[in-house]
């Protein structure tokens, strides 16, 4: 029942409160998206996911995640494997399995890689490719493939991000 209440909030009041903030976020992420596109990194689904994920996890929260990653690694806790890290918010176990870091444990090299925008793009691209959703046109299918569940608000944000990215290409 609590899950139903949370979903109802997300679809109504939470969604209403997020719309203006997400519109502002779309404008703020143009530089990131343009920078990736200038380097030939132009896959629309990947760019849209990076836009949505950076909305949910702004830089300050990502910094806290990096500190938690270090702490969990020092304590050798298994929870570190399932931590979602970086702009792409990919779990550390997937970063490793996709060949982008050597270990789920914190290292300065891995830290530098998960903070790099181009490598985050590649993590998201590889994850979508592995899930057979890289060229998927449906935001709902992409959402389920990337987040593991149907999330109407996330799908709506993906749709808006796709529109903003197309619009910025002129």
How would you characterize the overall build of this protein?
By secondary structure, this protein is mostly helical. It has one domain. Helix content is 70%, strand content 2%. The chain is built from nine helices and two strands. The chain has helices at 2-28, 30-38, 44-56, 59-74, 92-97, 108-115, 117-130, 139-147, 152-168, and strands spanning 84-85, 90-91. A two-stranded antiparallel sheet has the order 1-2. Strand 1 and strand 2 (90-91) form a beta hairpin. Helix 1 (2-28) runs parallel beside helix 9 (152-168) and helix 8 crosses helix 9 (152-168). It starts with a helix and ends with a helix. The model is unreliable at 1-14 (pLDDT under 50).
State the gist of this model.
With 170 residues, the protein is an all-alpha fold.
The DSSP helix count reads 9
Main sheet summary:
2 strands, antiparallel
Strand order of the largest sheet: 1-2
Mean pLDDT: 90
**Uncertain residue segments:** 1-14
Principal-axes shape call: globular
Radius of gyration: 16 Å
- Percentage of residues in strands: under 5%
Provide key terms for this protein:
2% strand; mainly alpha; 170 residues; globular; 9 helices
SSE blueprint:
Blueprint (H helix, E strand, L loop, with lengths): L1 H27 L1 H9 L5 H13 L2 H16 L9 E2 L4 E2 H6 L10 H8 L1 H14 L8 H9 L4 H17 L2
Antiparallel strand pairs: 1-2
């Amino acid at each position: 029942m609590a899950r139903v209440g949370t979903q109802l909030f997300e679809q109504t009041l939470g969604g209403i409160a997020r719309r203006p903030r997400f519109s502002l976020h779309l404008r703020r992420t143009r530089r990131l998206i343009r920078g990736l596109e200038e380097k030939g990194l132009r896959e629309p689904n990947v760019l849209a996911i990076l836009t949505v994920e950076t909305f949910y996890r702004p830089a300050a929260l990502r910094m806290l995640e990096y500190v938690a990653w270090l702490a969990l690694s020092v304590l050798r806790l298994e929870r570190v494997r399932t931590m979602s890290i970086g702009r792409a918010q990919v779990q550390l176990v997937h970063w490793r399995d996709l060949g982008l870091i050597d270990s789920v444990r914190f290292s300065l090299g891995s830290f530098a890689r998960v903070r790099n925008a181009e490598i985050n793009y590649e993590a998201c691209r590889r994850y979508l490719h592995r899930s057979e959703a890289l060229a998927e046109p449906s935001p709902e299918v992409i959402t389920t493939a990337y987040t593991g569940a149907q999330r109407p608000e996330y799908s709506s944000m993906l749709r808006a991000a796709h529109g903003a990215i197309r619009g910025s290409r002129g």
